[in-house]
Write a structure and sequence with these properties.
This protein is of the alpha/beta class and about 190 residues long. It is built from 6 helices and 8 strands. The chain has helices at about 20-25, 40-50, 90-100, 105-115, 145-155, 165-185, and strands at about 10-15, 35-40, 60-65, 80-90, 120-125, 130-135, 140, 160-165. The protein is globular.
């Protein structure tokens, strides 16, 4: 007797960024098979933006950062995921990804997705010399540093990695990726 085939899932990682945080949180409701990796910093941001993980659909599995070795990342080696998303991604996360540092849940997701050749979408926060972003208290102006912008450019060169700069680009990349996954599973 054959065991039922489990559909592959999308692994979404939240970091400590507030840039389009609520919009990303809302977008998760549209993903059919989703595991949400919540870093310690993201858990703080969830509270700051008055969101509740319990508001996500029951089909979303929430994986919180509770181990020093990012133990849940082992699931990447068992074919569970078709796509990894890091959205929104802090400049710290982007820099660590660029330099191969995998010492957080988010950077471990990126590293293991790469090692397993799983396509990854990164919604980088710091992508222009001057930006408006929503903070918990309202809109603020930010001025990313040159190194932040350079790291985003470096990340674009990584294999199987799509870097997006806007919420619309994130939505388009997700639609394209899910269409690809659906076409290959039919």
């Amino acid at each position: 007797m054959n065991a039922p085939v489990r559909p592959q899932r999308l692994a979404w990682t939240l970091t400590g960024s507030g840039h389009f945080f609520t919009e990303c949180f809302d977008l998760m409701h549209e993903i059919p098979h989703l595991d949400l990796f919540v870093t310690r910093a993201a858990a703080e941001v969830v509270r700051m933006y008055r969101q509740k993980l319990e508001q996500l659909p029951n089909r979303v599995r929430v994986i919180k950062d509770t181990t020093a070795s990012a133990a849940p990342i082992g699931q990447f080696y068992h074919g569970l995921y078709h796509t990894a998303v890091i959205a929104p991604a802090t400049s710290n996360t982007v820099a660590k990804c660029v330099y191969g540092i995998s010492d957080t849940l988010a950077t471990n997701v990126f590293a293991q997705a790469g090692k397993c050749r799983i396509p990854t979408i990164v919604f980088a926060c710091d992508t222009a010399p001057e930006m408006d972003t929503m903070a918990p208290s309202g809109m603020v102006k930010v001025y990313p540093r040159r190194i932040d912008l350079e790291n985003v450019d470096r990340l674009r060169t990584f294999e199987a990695t799509t870097v997006v700069e806007t919420l619309d680009e994130l939505k388009q990349a997700l639609r394209a990726r899910l269409a690809c996954v659906n076409a290959s599973s039919s």
